[in-house]
Design goal:
This protein is an alpha/beta fold. The chain folds into 2 domains: 255 residues, Metal-dependent hydrolases (TIM Barrel); 203 residues, no CATH class.
């Protein structure tokens, strides 16, 4: 009512209204972290001149694994917040599979230590991973059963239940999985989904479980069916998967409120070069989607899906999470406010923490029984070997067959490479062997301790001695990325759970970039991201053929299959 001065007045702004899809010129008045008025003539203790820029609500990522950036939480926030991100629904699935719930506690605590003007620059809504391990077909560093899941969901630490990747168990009514879902319902907490190619009766059943979302829809038809059955569809704009163009075809003026934007997995390099949700907004608008639909999908739709009150819009009583952009085409972010406090400007974070938080619980997590070159030898009996063929620019694979020799297989000079998954949590000695067709690598081996979702060592190569050396380098480093060629050895440590680096973002980008370029020099094809594509070849919940530390797994058959069919 303008009876006293506000804490902040944002002047000369064009304010985007997510409820009407319109721009309104005027001022935003902020007091005690909330918007108290929109109009003109406000007096403020502080004034910020928007200079005609457009003000959007803070952007909200509907589903992300922070660990996939390889950045510590502190560095991730420093990279993402300047791009307009003020909230994330974070599923610490990767680190919990390695370290248990202590990994989630680490993520939350590290973020909570960041401050700008007395406020945390980023809201982190932490989901309790639902699949630890992701399946029973691999060895992970931790396990959360239904009893433990119920206990943890009772804590304030967790906002909801993370993506239910084991959708076959949901559809078959496995008791342990249903108990986890029921526990989330008892506590009134949302449940995220993961349901690739789930149609018809299966889609009905999955929704009946009370699962809210899905980010695995492959095409417009699948998107529309899932929306029609009451699911929210999360459109991914990440480094590994980007279905913006396909999903856009499913969106119309009636159903756009059922779509959410997420990144799922985004590398540090892509965060720096392309941005975060601002990148998704640019892509959608460039593909012809009205900007007002796209903005809603990164703001109010996310808030309403998850029942988060007083965020996602610029209106009285809503928290003053505000993003200034030049226009609704390029979405270049010039300033970011959190609870009315300026937390980033001109691409730079205005917050920091005193020192990196690195508890012992997330360090020293790589425990491997030593492997020798002979452990990677493959012998045939004259039948057919199964091989993994990866779809270009995709996480999906196909099962193909190649001739098996009588005796030892030699892959040098062929279109095949050997693939190995080595258990790294308990030094069991488990080692799964397989073949990959068409990756392109020759003259050595590459490997990584990031391998969704149990994060064992994944090694690819055409030289057994080089594969053994990669395993040794990764073990000595406490996790990371490694390359061994005829000319050199390189390793970049990922000392935080074997997933993330304690280095700053610039160093992570530079050193991982150098490794990628070296791998490209060894022939890895452009349609594959040398290390990140590798990291998904053990993900047994994505069709069709994958490799775990226990062997080859065919998701269509939902069973292990032998390397050779005789």
């Amino acid at each position: 009512m303008k009876r006293e001065a506000c804490d902040l007045v944002l002047k000369n702004a064009r304010i985007f209204n997510v409820f009407t899809g319109e721009l309104e010129e005027g001022e935003l008045a902020v007091a005690e972290g909330r918007i108290v008025g929109i109009g003109r003539g406000y007096e403020g203790k502080a004034v910020y001149d928007a200079r005609g820029r457009i003000v959007l609500p803070g952007l909200m990522d509907a589903h992300i694994h922070i660990e996939s950036s390889m950045l510590s939480p502190e560095e991730w926030a420093s990279a993402a917040v300047p791009h307009g991100t003020t909230a994330v629904i974070a599923d610490p699935h990767e680190i919990v599979n390695v370290c248990g719930v202590g990994g989630a506690e680490y993520i939350k605590e590290a973020f909570s230590r960041l401050r700008a003007g007395g406020v945390e620059p980023l809201d982190v809504y932490l989901q309790l991973p639902s699949c630890v391990p992701a399946t029973s077909f691999e060895t992970s560093g931790a396990a959360l059963d239904a009893r433990e899941t119920e206990h943890e969901l009772g804590r304030d630490l967790f906002f909801g239940l993370g993506e239910m990747m084991n959708f076959p168990a949901v559809l078959s009514g496995e008791e342990e999985v249903l108990k986890k879902i029921e526990a989330a319902h008892r506590f009134g907490k949302p449940i995220d989904g993961h349901a690739p190619a789930v149609f018809g009766d299966a889609c009905n059943a999955y929704r009946c479980a009370g699962i809210l979302t899905d980010h695995e829809s492959l095409d417009p038809k699948e998107c529309r069916e899932k929306v029609a059955r009451g699911l929210y569809v999360q459109i991914r704009c990440g480094s590994s998967v980007n279905n913006v163009s396909d999903a856009k075809e499913a969106i119309d003026a009636f159903n756009f409120r059922r779509f959410l934007l997420c990144s799922d997995d985004k590398t540090a390099k892509d965060l720096a070069a392309c941005g975060h949700l601002d990148d998704a907004l640019r892509r959608l608008v460039a593909d012809g989607l009205p900007a007002k639909y796209a903005i809603a999908m990164a703001t109010i739709n996310v808030a309403e899906c998850y029942g988060i009150r007083d965020v996602g819009a610029l209106a009285p009583r809503y928290f003053a999470d505000m993003v200034l952009v030049d226009d609704l085409k390029d979405f270049r972010v010039s300033a970011v406010f959190k609870r009315g406090v300026l937390v980033a400007e001109d691409g730079k974070p205005l917050f920091a923490c005193a020192e990196r938080y690195l508890p012992a619980s997330v360090l020293g997590t790589v425990h491997v029984r030593p492997v020798k070159a002979e452990d990677f030898r493959i012998f045939g009996h004259g039948g057919k070997f199964r091989a993994i063929r990866i779809r270009p620019y995709s996480l999906y694979t196909e099962e193909v067959f190649v001739d098996a020799p009588q005796g030892e297989l030699r892959v040098k000079g062929t279109d095949l490479t050997k693939l190995a998954v080595v258990e790294r949590h308990r030094a069991t000695g488990n080692l799964g062997l397989g073949l990959v067709e068409g990756y392109g690598l020759h003259g050595g081996a590459i490997g990584i301790t990031v391998s969704h979702d149990s994060h064992n060592l994944v090694i690819l190569g055409d030289d057994d001695a080089a594969m053994s050396r990669v395993a040794a380098l990764l073990t000595e480093a406490g996790g990371g990325m490694a390359l061994v060629s005829d000319a050199e050895e390189r390793v970049f440590p990922l000392e935080i759970a074997g997933l993330m680096s304690a280095a700053d973002a610039g160093e992570v980008i530079r050193r991982t970039g150098e490794l990628r370029e070296r791998a490209r020099g060894m022939g890895v094809k452009e349609c594959y991201e040398p290390f990140m594509t590798l990291a998904f070849l053990s993900l047994a919940v994505i069709p069709e053929l994958k490799l775990t530390d226990r062997g080859l797994f065919n998701l269509k058959k939902h069973s292990f299959v032998p390397l050779e069919e005789v």
